[in-house]
Amino acid sequence: MPRQQDAVFLGCTKLFGGLDAGALDAVAALATSRAVGAGQAVFRQGAEATHLHLVVTGRVKIAQVNGDGLSLTIRFMGPGEVPGCVAIFRHVPFPANATAVVDSRLLLWSSARVGEIMERHPRLAANALEVVGTQTQEMLHRLREFAMEPVERRIARALLRLAGQAGRRVDTGLEIDFPLSRQDIAEMTGTTLYTVSRTLREWERRGVVQSARRRVVVRDPARLGEMGANQSRSRPREGA
C-alpha cells in the first residue's frame, strides 16, 4: 500500500484520528510495514516492547499463557487496532502473545519514535489515553462476565461481539470472517472445549448458529442476543 494510502488509513483510526493531513503523512513516513503470515507471531508474551503495532489488514489473536501453561484468548484485533499498545505506553514487557490468524499487514513504529510523535502531536497522547481506557473498560467487563455470568451466556456474548466486529453477510446469516476454533471460543469464555462443543451442537440443532471447519455463522443474531441477555443465572455443572 503506498505511503499516501497508509496516511489516509491512519486518519481513520482511533489512535491517529484528528491529526491533520501533514501530520498523518509524517507519521506514515516514519512507519515500517510488516507482513505476517497466518499462524506467525507478531510478538511474544514477556518480550521487550520495542515497537508499537497497528493492524492494517488481517486479524491478530491476543492470548495470555499462565504459569500452568493454560491459554486465555483475550480478544481478536482487526484493522485500525493496536495490539500491545499498553506495553509500549507503560514501558513494560508485552503481557500476552499476539499471533496472526490470517495473513496480515501491520505498521510499526519504534518506542523512541512513538515518544517523539507524541511530543510533536499532543492529540496523539489524548487518543492513546482513550484507546487504553477503552481496552481497560472492556477487560473489566469481561472479568465481570467470568465471575458472574453462566457459561452459555458468556459464549453467546462472545459470538455476538465477534459477529459485530468481524461479521460479513452470507446467505445463512453473519459469518465471522476469520478462522475461529471451538478451542478459541473456550479460551475466550473461560470454559472447556467440551462445554463449547456441547453448547454449539445444541444451538446448531435450534438453528441459532452454524459451525464447521473453524468457521462460525450466526444464523439468528436476535435469538443469540436473547440467550446472551436472558438466560438463567444458575451455572451449569459441567465445564463452566
What do these coordinates show?
The protein folds into 2 domains: 3-144, Jelly Rolls (Sandwich), CATH 2.60.120; 149-230, Winged helix-like DNA-binding domain superfamily/Winged helix DNA-binding domain (Arc Repressor Mutant, subunit A), CATH 1.10.10. It is 45% helix and 23% strand. It has helices at residues 3-11, 21-29, 85-90, 111-120, 122-148, 151-166, 182-189, 193-205, 221-230, and strands spanning 32-36, 41-43, 51-57, 60-65, 71-77, 97-100, 104-110, 167-170, 173-176, 209-212, 215-218. Strands 2-6-4-5 form a 4-stranded antiparallel β-sheet. Strands 8-9-11-10 form a 4-stranded antiparallel β-sheet. Helix 1 (3-11) packs across helix 2 (21-29) and helix 6 crosses helix 7 (182-189). The termini are far apart. Mean pLDDT is 91; it is low at 232-240.
Give the SSE layout:
Layout: H1 3-11, H2 21-29, E1 32-36, E2 41-43, E3 51-57, E4 60-65, E5 71-77, H3 85-90, E6 97-100, E7 104-110, H4 111-120, H5 122-148, H6 151-166, E8 167-170, E9 173-176, H7 182-189, H8 193-205, E10 209-212, E11 215-218, H9 221-230
Antiparallel strand pairs: 1-7, 2-6, 3-7, 4-5, 4-6, 8-9, 9-11, 10-11
Helix pairs in contact: 1-2, 4-5, 6-7, 6-9, 7-8
Main attributes?
45% helix; 240 residues; alpha+beta; Arc Repressor Mutant, subunit A; Jelly Rolls; four-stranded antiparallel β-sheet
